[in-house]
Amino acid sequence: MDLLAWKNLPASRRAAALRRPAQSAQPAIAAAVRAIVAAVRRDGDAALRRFTEKFDRVTLRTLRVTEAEFAAAEKSLSRADLAALRTACRNIRRFHAAQRSKDLRVETQPGIVCEKTVRPIGRVGLYVPGGSAPLPSTALMLGVPSQLAGNPVRVLCTPPDKNGRINPWILCAARLCGITEIYKVGGAQAIAAMAYGTVSIPKCDKLFGPGNAFVTEAKQQVARDAAGAAIDLPAGPSEVMVIADGTADASFVAADLLSQAEHGPDSQVVLVTFAKSFAAQVALEIKRQLALLPRRAIARRALAKSRVILAASPAEAVEIANAYAPEHLILQVRKPRALLSKITTAGSVFLGLWTPESLGDYASGTNHVLPTYGWARACSGLGLSDFQRTMTVQEASPLGLCRLGQVVARLATAENLIAHRRAVTIRLQKLAR
Asked: Looking at the annotation, which residues are catalytic?
């Protein structure tokens, strides 16, 4: 990991220090995704089978997971495994259920009533990453709020392994959330299938879930197409920033950095600290712990694109964090809440020595589908409201129209929208008779 002193970097170098690694390949990724999306729109299920054979190296007879596969998955997990899933599910449900919003009704003036009412989105597509690190936790993060929201149609896509099977943890997690419609499709092709529909996979109104750079690009492409689907947020390769002072434990910091680096070679980890000596301690711990990891080759590739930044003060560390807008921000400092009050852009924040990012990834209750690539400047992490939409309603009594009508007529005249004015005045004339 490169060591950079922030105060010595010009503005251009600072921007480069905080650039995500996958961005340099963006034009090539975009072109590849466009070709995949076009093929799925043209050839439907046939394209999905071709891409599954090409990318997942398995030939499938059917795309949908069967009831027998659900039953086999449940039998393959131990009681302790299932209990862990249930505990995580319960915490996630408790936190998201607390986010329920109520319908509201306001009489803005006598005779004018305005309302806001909540409705579930009709058809939602849930993407759960698979491959070398299947993520049953993501099935919970998407399944729980969609169940609470009451979405009538819930479709889940996740890539199969080389034997054509879905990871049993994912199937059991999905079933805990009442999801039964699961398809063995991954990558950009899964996003295209849920956005446009095929013979097997229903077209969805909105797509959810994290993924690699190809999945993220596919989500953004279908969201730009009126015939496609809306998306939750840009949630791509995982990233973490750790701010650590002299009170931090170097072994904890190293473990937190490695927990994100092992996600994939396009993940990024950034350490912001205040002393070269502490950075050196973390480097030694990373080297020691890296040797213990089964996914050390993946983590090593991610670390090669990551950074250690020396900040001159806590205020400068906050400036760096807000400029980077990390997906995950860990504050291993003496008074983490003092820094938290100044943090304006982060997907999810973890406070103090005893709060590893892993808690949020799995079971604390918060959602781990979070904005990456700096999108935390404008986007929030996933919540219950993302699976719902609101409608406003208004109703005027004759008295209300009489009192407000002339105001509306005057404003419509100012905008030279005479039909708008007449829609009011024709009613006022009727009431005046």
From this structure: 327-328
